[in-house]
Amino acid sequence: MNRFFVSPNQINRDKNEITIVDEDVKHISKVLRLYNGDEIEVSDGMEYVYIAEISDINKNEVLATIISSEKITTESNINITLFQSIPKSTKMDYIVQKATELGVKNIVPIISERTIVQFSNDKDAEKKRERWEKIVQEAAKQSKRGIVPNVEEPITFKKSIQRVNDYDLNLLAYEKESNIGLKKVIEKYSGVESIVNIGVWIGPEGGFDDKEISLLENIKVETITLGPRILRTETAGAALISALMYSLGDLGGTE
């Protein structure tokens, strides 16, 4: 069943009706070719997901009658923010897509010393962010997320490190770290229950430079190894996020 996201004000509980607008209207009618009577899933992006039956499709909106609702159960209690130094080409598209599928709540594109991609102005940066936002929304639909992760506007490395204190744990995947792994870092804390908000730091092609690594280490960002093999920037984030989710009980079932 296809999933869509709406804002809470598009759900009218008195009329038992949901209104879908904007690009999803065309997607429902022209791409998916859904009709009156077809059922869809609709998330309010906050608390509930609804099963609804399409009752009317027109040029500007799709109306659906609520059949049932339940609490969102697909979201992790772990709040991961990915601080990703922007790689070249379309690699960032892949990164935001996979981060969304794995359960990340927030994505912060950063411009570090070795970032090749440069924005000519704020409008250029916003255009890129909007592209990533669309990819994230589609990935959230496909993976049955309860929310659509937030994609922030690109910021400088210097601004990004001011955010470190927002997290219970900050992790840096570093190719020159050979001994300390994720398991050892987690064991340093009083228990996984104390780790809720996590910042994950991934460098661009070539990694962060030595000065940036030093700055991160000085503000107590934990540097860890991802194993004996060197991972690409578009692989490192997904690998670390997967390991984190598993270590903290979000992947792998209950037994």
From TrEMBL:
The molecular function GO annotations come to: rRNA (uridine-N3-)-methyltransferase activity
Quote the SUPFAM superfamilies the UniProt record gives: alpha/beta knot, PUA domain-like
Database matches in InterPro entries = Alpha/beta_knot_MTases, PUA-like_sf, RsmE, RsmE_MTase_dom, RsmE_PUA-like, tRNA_m1G_MTases_N
Q: What keywords tag this UniProt record?
A: Cytoplasm, Methyltransferase, rRNA processing, S-adenosyl-L-methionine, Transferase
Protein family according to the UniProt entry: Belongs to the RNA methyltransferase RsmE family.
PANTHER family to which the protein is assigned, alphabetical: 16S RRNA (URACIL(1498)-N(3))-METHYLTRANSFERASE, RIBOSOMAL RNA SMALL SUBUNIT METHYLTRANSFERASE E
Annotated protein name in UniProt: Ribosomal RNA small subunit methyltransferase E
Which species? Serpentinicella alkaliphila
